[in-house]
Design goal:
three-stranded mixed sheet, eight-stranded mixed sheet, alpha/beta, 375 residues
Length: 375
C-alpha cells in the first residue's frame, strides 16, 4: 500500500472519528474543532521539557493586567449545575470580555446543555465560548476529557481548570491574576512558572451565593494518602488566611489549577489514560514539576466547589469504567515506580531518574508509601 493511500485512509478515519465525537446542537454554531487531534497529526511524543530560564515570562510582566486573557477549561459529565457555573463565572468576572471558555460536555440528550441554558446576560459573551459535545456513553473519563478541553485553547495568557460545579467570588479574574503575580514575586526562584492549585472550599448548592467566612480560610494540600493501589493527595488543610500561608506543594488539584497558558504546550494532557481517576493528579503533578513548574497554594479562597453531589450521575457508573480504570491505573503505577510488573506506560511518563528526583525533593518513600507533612 503506497504512502499517499495510507494518509488518505487515515484522513477518512479521522473525519469519521471527529463526527462521531462532536455532536452539534441545531442552531448552535459554537462548536469549535480547530486543532482536534486525528491519526497522523504530531502528538508531542518526542517532546523535550523546556528548561526554565530567567528570561521566561508568560504572561509578560509589561502587559497590563486588564488586558490579560484567561482560558477556563471545564470537563462536564452530565452535570445539571454546569450552566449555573458558567453564569456565575461571567457574572462575577470584572472583565468578562477577557474570559474564554472551553467545555467538553458529556451528556445524555435529556441533560441540561452547558451553553444552551445560560442566562441572557451571560450569552452576551457567547463568542468567547467553545464547546465539544459527545454522548455520555462515549465518555472515557477525566484525562481524555481534559485533553479535548485543551484543544480549545487559543493562546490566552492564563489557563484555569475547574470542575463544572464551581462558584466564584466577585472579581475572581483580577484576584487570580493579582495573586499569581504576588506569588511569582515572592518566589522568584520559580522563574514565573508558577501554578496555584488546591481543593476549593465547599459551597451548598441549595443556597445561592458564596459560602460564608470564605475570606477567613484557605485550603492547603499538605499530605499524601496511601489508597492501596496509588499514592494520592490527601484532603487539604484549612488554614487561617490571617497567617498568610504560602507553601510550595508537590500536588495539583484538578478542580482548581491556575497558571500560565504555556502549561498546555509544556505538559499536554494525556488522552490515552481512559477512566483514570486516582493517579490523575499525582502523575500530572510529577510531570509539571519535571517541566520546571512550581506549585503553590492559593492565598485567597477565590473558588468554591460542590462536593459529593449525591444522586448525580458519576463516571464510575458506566460499565466500561472498572476494567479500563485498572489498565490505566497500572500504567501510572509503573511510571511512578510503584510496581515491577511488566506492561505499558503512559505516553507522557517522565524518566525513572526524573521520578526519583521528584521523590527525593519531597521526601516521598514510595516503598512505604509515606511522605512528611509539608505545612
Amino acid at each position: 500500500m503506497n504512502r499517499s493511500l495510507v494518509f488518505f485512509l487515515l484522513f477518512l478515519h479521522s473525519m469519521h472519528h471527529v463526527k462521531a465525537l462532536i455532536r452539534k446542537s441545531e442552531g448552535n454554531p459554537i462548536v469549535h474543532s480547530k486543532d482536534y487531534w486525528f491519526p497522523g497529526k504530531e502528538r508531542h511524543a518526542d517532546y523535550v521539557y523546556k528548561v526554565p530560564t530567567p528570561e521566561f515570562g508568560c504572561p509578560p510582566k509589561d502587559k497590563p493586567k486588564k488586558d490579560r486573557t484567561i482560558f477556563v477549561s471545564i470537563a462536564s459529565y452530565r452535570d445539571s449545575v454546569c450552566p449555573s457555573t458558567i453564569d456565575d463565572m461571567y457574572k462575577n468576572a470584572k472583565y468578562p470580555e477577557r474570559i474564554f471558555l472551553g467545555v467538553y460536555q458529556q451528556n445524555d440528550p435529556e441533560d441540561a446543555d452547558c451553553i444552551a441554558n445560560l442566562q441572557q446576560k451571560t450569552l452576551r459573551h457567547v463568542h468567547n465560548m467553545r464547546i465539544l459535545r459527545i454522548n455520555y456513553k462515549d465518555a472515557n473519563g477525566p484525562c481524555p476529557a481534559r485533553h479535548y478541553c485543551s484543544q480549545l485553547y487559543n493562546g490566552e495568557d492564563y489557563f484555569l481548570q475547574i470542575d463544572s460545579h464551581t462558584r466564584f467570588i466577585e472579581d475572581w479574574d483580577v484576584e487570580h491574576i493579582d495573586m499569581w503575580e504576588d506569588v511569582a514575586e515572592r518566589r522568584p526562584e520559580a522563574l514565573r512558572k508558577v501554578i496555584l492549585s488546591t481543593y476549593p472550599i465547599e459551597y451548598n448548592v441549595s443556597h445561592p451565593g458564596y459560602p460564608p467566612n470564605y475570606d477567613k480560610y484557605i485550603s492547603v494540600m499538605c499530605k499524601s494518602k496511601d489508597m492501596q493501589d496509588m499514592l494520592v493527595p490527601a484532603a487539604s488543610l484549612l488554614s487561617p488566611i490571617d497567617n498568610g500561608p504560602l507553601y510550595e506543594q508537590n500536588y495539583i488539584a484538578a478542580g482548581w489549577l491556575f497558571g500560565p497558558g504555556s502549561i498546555l504546550e509544556d505538559v499536554p494532557f494525556d488522552d490515552e489514560l481512559p477512566w483514570l481517576f486516582r493517579g490523575e493528579e499525582v502523575l500530572h503533578s510529577i510531570r509539571l514539576w519535571v517541566a520546571g513548574y512550581r506549585i503553590y497554594n492559593p492565598t485567597k479562597s477565590i473558588l468554591a466547589h460542590y462536593y459529593t453531589r449525591a444522586n448525580n450521575p458519576k463516571i464510575w457508573d458506566l460499565p466500561s469504567y472498572a476494567a479500563e480504570n485498572v489498565v490505566s491505573t497500572d500504567k501510572v503505577r509503573r511510571c511512578m515506580l510503584m510496581t515491577d510488573l511488566p506492561g505499558p506506560y503512559p505516553r507522557y511518563c517522565p524518566t525513572k531518574e526524573e521520578v526519583l528526583s521528584y521523590y527525593t525533593r519531597w521526601r516521598i518513600n514510595i516503598r512505604d508509601r509515606t511522605m512528611p507533612d509539608i505545612c
